[in-house]
From TrEMBL:
Reactions accelerated catalytically: (R)-5-phosphomevalonate = (2E)-3-methyl-5-phosphooxypent-2-enoate + H2O
Domain Phosphomevalonate dehydratase large subunit-like: 1-393
Protein name as annotated: Phosphomevalonate dehydratase large subunit
Source organism: Candidatus Heimdallarchaeum endolithica
Keyword set, alphabetical order: Iron, Lyase
Membrane-spanning segments: none
Quaternary context: Heterodimer composed of a large subunit (PMDh-L) and a small subunit (PMDh-S).
GO molecular function: lyase activity
């Protein structure tokens, strides 16, 4: 791989052992993927924040980095943590977990990384620009960056996105190259897609059946940012899909040559129904979990409009997960106050998957996110069901 003199100097340790190790990681990944050179990236979004997922191993990693007092070279933000950083006691987080979680965030802060603690940086003022190279690691955000915004990122891991944050570099391979961004399969969407969950179901179905491929969806009638994030998250979870195109809606669709699409598959009402059927509610629900990916202002307002004149059933908890930025929005502050009075909990900084409380305290969870279903179902003691937000809310309020 070609390296500039400056990159070689860093690799040789002239700016310290830690930075050299960070660059070594990027070079290694580049070599494995036949990259010819390193390129600059404009931002990094870093996963590996929740103490639930990273454990104590992360502290030796921080020890290594901190030896040389490293600071990030580009704007860098964090993925959700394992708890709401302000209301973790109310969430029922134990003191050991909260202590470790606070320590982890503090370590990231020391490096100059912003504690946005959200998987939807693009909803809080960090939309990537068309064509810009970035190093993001939350899988749904990666797919949004590539597909919805036309930015370029591979699906980075926590350590590699951190290495990019500290060096400002990544290896040029995969989705950074235009030739790798072409769709491989045409999906004719014959089913009607209306709710966020419908888009999530399409994504889940595609990922499960065609995982790893880039699809070109035809027949989708509208694609709001909320629908795109539902689609992105589901596909990334069930099939590691990091990019897709949607006719008329995503920025690179015009470059697609229809004759290059040799395979066509139909997504019909039958496929849609079969996914809903598979995750159909079977037991008495004890938790409704909304906000995977983190809920936007629009989603919180939608929920409020349904529940405002109604009462929540007492045997069901409702949790909505969002970013701190959305939660402190003036309009949302007043809505959340009213929802709190109704017993609805709106948390920031965390989510139903990366926080321990959902798994520990609930056995029958319903959500409108296929990604949440995918990950929460890994715990065999938890039953997880899927439905549209409208249907879910209808059942739990009176
Ligand atoms: Fe975000 Fe958690 Fe879902 S990080 S995409 S809300 S699993």
């Amino acid at each position: 791989m070609y390296l500039t003199k400056e990159q070689e100097r860093i690799l040789e340790g002239e700016e310290g052992e830690s930075l050299s190790k960070m660059l070594q990681l990027i070079v290694k990944i580049g070599e494995v993927n036949d990259a010819e050179k390193l390129i600059s990236v404009n931002s990094a979004q870093i996963a590996g924040v929740s103490y639930l997922t990273v454990g104590d191993a992360i502290f030796s990693f921080f020890d290594m980095i901190n030896k040389d007092n490293l600071k990030v070279k580009i704007p860098s933000w964090l993925n959700p943590a394992g708890m709401d950083m302000g209301r973790y006691k109310e969430m029922g987080i134990d003191s050991l977990f909260s202590k470790k979680q606070i320590q982890i965030i503090e370590e990231y802060r020391k490096l100059g990384i912003k504690d946005t603690l959200t998987c939807t940086p693009y909803l809080v003022g960090h939309e990537p620009k068309f064509g810009e190279h970035v190093a993001w690691s939350e899988s749904s955000a990666v797919s949004m960056a590539n597909s919805y915004f036309g930015a370029r990122t591979n699906r980075e891991g926590g350590p590699s996105s951190l290495a990019s944050a500290l060096t400002g570099l990544t290896a040029e391979y995969g989705l950074h190259l235009p030739e790798n961004r072409k769709p491989e399969v045409l999906i004719e969407v014959d089913a009607v897609l209306e709710s966020f969950a419908d888009f999530s179901v399409l994504g889940f179905w595609f990922g499960e059946n065609q995982g790893g491929k880039i699809p070109f969806f035809r027949g989708i009638k509208q694609l709001s940012i909320e629908k795109a994030k539902s689609l992105s998250a589901a596909m990334a979870a069930s099939g590691s899909v990091a990019m897709y195109h949607v006719e008329y809606f995503t920025p690179e669709y015009k470059k697609i040559k229809k004759e290059d699409l040799t395979e066509t598959i139909h997504f019909t009402e039958e496929e849609k129904k079969s996914i809903y059927e598979r995750f159909k509610e079977q037991d008495n629900i004890d938790l409704i979990a909304i906000g995977c990916p983190h809920a936007s202002k629009k989603e919180i307002k939608m929920i409020y409009n349904v529940v405002k004149s109604k009462q929540k059933k007492s045997d069901v908890d409702i949790m909505i997960f969002t970013s701190r930025k959305v939660l402190t929005d003036e309009e949302i502050v007043s809505i959340v106050k009213k929802m709190t009075k109704k017993g609805i909990k709106v948390y920031a900084d965390t989510c139903m998957v990366v926080s321990p409380v959902t798994r520990q305290n609930y056995r029958n969870i319903i959500t409108n996110s296929s990604k949440a279903v995918f990950y929460l179902s890994k715990n065999k003691e938890t039953n997880v069901f899927l439905d549209t937000l409208e249907n879910i809310l209808r059942r739990i309020v009176r």
